[in-house]
Write a structure and sequence with these properties.
Blueprint lengths: L2 H9 L11 H15 L3 E4 L2 H4 L15 E8 L6 E13 L4 H12 L5 E8 L5 H14 L8 E8 L5 E6 L1
Parallel strand pairs: 3-4, 4-5
Antiparallel strand pairs: 1-2, 2-3, 5-6
Length: 168
């Protein structure tokens, strides 16, 4: 899977503008660019309007903040049908553990090869509490299957991005 490429793209993100209003677009653009290199389709909302150079996704937001998928045309009906979902991603910029937990819990129910949470870190942010919560959530979810893979990435206002991989 593309875990190392995702980490590298997130580590390379820079935005010197104050605030977080453009970070979702920058993060989505990194994921879109990664998907394009792997010839995957993307469903997400709002990136082309937010980030210069962002490619328009294949279609708008679908279930999660961003989804990589493959599809084919059903021969009997001529309708496009999803054939796989290699990745789903949620972004959460609210600094509360409760908001981050809510988005991570959505990832627990996803049927994707890789489930990613990207969140912001602010002064006094409980980074280790987020990683710990996500680990416990994976371990405690009744439908977790061996091999389920999660990636939790924290983007601080200052300093380096940190990503932790969680395996079921």
């Amino acid at each position: 899977m593309a875990i190392e490429e995702i980490k590298a793209r997130l580590l390379a993100l820079t935005d010197t503008r104050p605030g977080r209003h453009l970070w979702s677009g920058l993060v989505k653009k990194a994921f879109i660019d990664c998907a394009v290199t792997m010839k995957l389709k993307v469903a997400t909302a709002g990136t082309a309007a937010q980030v210069e150079g962002a490619r328009e996704p294949d279609w708008g937001e679908w279930l999660y903040d961003l989804v990589w998928y493959t599809s084919k045309i059903d021969e009997a009906t001529g309708v496009e049908r999803t054939t796989s979902v290699p990745l789903v991603m949620e972004c959460e910029w609210d600094a509360s553990l409760a908001s981050i937990a809510l988005d991570f819990d959505k990832l627990l129910v996803a049927n994707a090869d890789l489930r990613v949470l990207v969140c912001g870190e602010y002064q006094g942010f409980p980074r280790e509490a987020v990683f710990s919560y996500c680990q416990r959530a994976v371990e405690g979810y009744a439908r977790t299957r061996p091999g389920d893979t999660f990636l939790v990435c924290v983007i601080p206002e200052v300093g380096e991005v940190e990503c932790k991989e969680i395996q079921a």
